[in-house]
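Handout, section B. The chain below has 195 residues.
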Amino acid sequence: EPLSNLDAKLRSFMRAELKHLQSELNTTTIYVTHDQIEAMTLAHRVAVMNKGVVQQIATPREIYDNPANLFVAGFIGSPPMNTLTGSIADGAFVGPEGKVALAGYAPRDKVVFGFRPEDARVVDPATSDIRAKIYACELTGNETIVTCQMGKSQIVVKMDKNFDMPPNAPVALSIDEEKICLFDADSGDKIAKGG
């Protein structure tokens, strides 16, 4: 882990330097890191491991957009993928927090519904079936990280920098159906459409 002891500014500079060198030298490099940002920014292909077992090998984009299982979904991404437990019935994911229409998935009793923070929007409660309350809004500069309380779950959504609502304000979530991931609740493996 060559960058682990550097401060944040120097680490960012060195990532760009390493990426440039890799391109200039046109050589294969094996880079070991626990820092997902380093893995995602430097690699052409990433191998995600858990306790010595390879969980997924793919491009950074494939790993981010289509994680093979719940471990990869939770490990890659900052904030990580949101997950809700429920079932699939009548063409929708159904959980204690509400339901989301799904196309192409067979009914199942136990599933984990996942989506990335940027693939959801906080909306008026009258416009969606997924209900929540604002827990906290954190302005990071170019965006606002919104944590919503949904029953016992906390869900994180990335909104624009001008978004602000008080704690406990009732809201709903609009989730991009094309970007959702479904996982088997027992094995943690991703469920393909039709499965």
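Note. The chain is about 20% helix and 40% strand. Compare this with the example in section A.
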